[in-house]
Amino acid sequence: MRVAFDRLVGMTGRLRTALVVLTLFVCFWSVSSLAEVPTAELAKKTEQLKQDIVDLNRELLKLEEDVLYPLDTQLVVFLGVDENAPFTLESVELLVDKKFATSYLYSDREIQALKRGGVQRLHVGNLTTGGHSVQAVFNGRGADNKFFRSTAKASFSKQSGAKYLELRVEPRPGQPLQPTFRIEELR
Q1: pTM of the model
Q2: What is the mean pLDDT of residues 180-185?
Q3: What CA dihedral angle connects 30, 60, 101 and 165, to 10 degrees?
Q4: Where are the beta strands (DSSP E) in the chain?
Q5: Domain 71-186: which CATH class?
Q6: 147 pLDDT tier (thresholds 50, 70, 90)
Q7: Which one of 19, 57, 66, 81 counts the least CB within 10 Å of its CB?
Q8: Where in this chain does the entry annotate a coiled-coil region (predicted)?
């Protein structure tokens, strides 16, 4: 299984290299063949070439994600922050089955985007079917501007197909100056 995975990763690396080589070839060919073309038409063809390269790269990234994270084994974790949450998130750490999965340090612009309703795709990974656990450690400043860490934990069962989880930072019901941290399954 590991050999097949290494071959697939190597294949995506070779595909990326082939895309770069193809792009360079097309660029050099286009420049030499377009030497006698009027400037407006040259600009139009250049823009079309750029769009073709963007489209090829998008297809390559989709292929790479499909190969590395098949839908049947996929775990996707999102993060959302309520606009009224009395907590300024600075970073988050994610553990899946007590193993480090990812961490992220937020900029002020990212925090503002999250508080305006944005959702971040924090982690994409593979899991086998069965029981699993996830733990998120939130680091930031509370309503009183004091730094603190808080942890949210959840257990879930992974079935065939993708599993989606969301980490939420919200005001605590009945105590608007206290945040609450939750992990919920998305359907």
Answers
A1: 0.64
A2: 92
A3: 120
A4: 74-81, 87-96, 99-105, 119-126, 130-142, 147-158, 163-172, 175-186
A5: mainly beta
A6: very high
A7: 66
A8: 39-66
pLDDT tens digit string along 89-143? 999 999 999 999 999 999 999 999 999 999 999 999 989 889 999 999 999 998 8
Interatomic CA distance for residues 177 and 6, integer angstroms: 50
Residue 186 pLDDT greater than 60, yes or no: yes
- Separation of alpha carbons 64 and 101, rounded Å: 19
Element (DSSP H or E) covering residue 159: none
Task: Give the pair of three-digit tokens for residue 11.
Answer: 């294949």
Residue 154 tokens read as 């959840």
Angle formed at CA 33 by CA 32 and CA 37, multiple of 5 degrees: 110
Tell me the C-alpha distance between 41 and 83, whole Å: 49
